């Protein structure tokens, strides 16, 4: 049983979410709260495996995310929010969120996403990632900092094998691991292995940063 902590300042939503996850099997709700302060206190006392965190709440969800990750680096923290803003998504990923899920997601998809995150995967809603990538592609490019010139990016991409390059292209199009496995005629676990190698070679944290890196976005640059 995985221990989940739910932090959201809307009590009706929070209780409904707790009931849904409890009934799904495999999850134990070890605490509920409504503020950044409560998130830290409950994380210390309840020892959760995963924290579901809203962005808009007293004390700030992003501040809570940053504090949780600094204090417990191995803790999986997932943002569950109504915001579909690019800035909120990228700020959350940079702060160490293991997932960014938009409220309104169906229960089966939410449960599948959380189980994947608990296995060590990351998650961003494909539709949101695709929309952000589309907007990024049509926006004027920002000047690259000295540490991330186009030549640097090209050299890093040359480290990828042809198969890894194919997987990265499909990820940038918003495809899930399951869809990539079906299209490329390989096992889903093989896709996950390729993604792990891609992230290591490009010095990135998750598939969204990898997709943005391919499009030349500064948000996906290696440090």
Automatic annotation (TrEMBL):
PROSITE patterns: HTH_LUXR_2 (PS50043), RESPONSE_REGULATORY (PS50110). The keyword Lipoprotein does not apply. Keywords: DNA-binding, Phosphoprotein. Residues 153-218 form the HTH luxR-type domain. It comes from the Bacteria. The modification 4-aspartylphosphate is found at residue 54. Residues 3-118 form the Response regulatory domain. InterPro entries: CheY-like_superfamily (IPR011006), NreC/VraR/RcsB-like_REC (IPR058245), Sig_transdc_resp-reg_C-effctor (IPR016032), Sig_transdc_resp-reg_receiver (IPR001789), Tscrpt_reg_LuxR_C (IPR000792), WalR-like (IPR039420). This is Response regulator transcription factor.
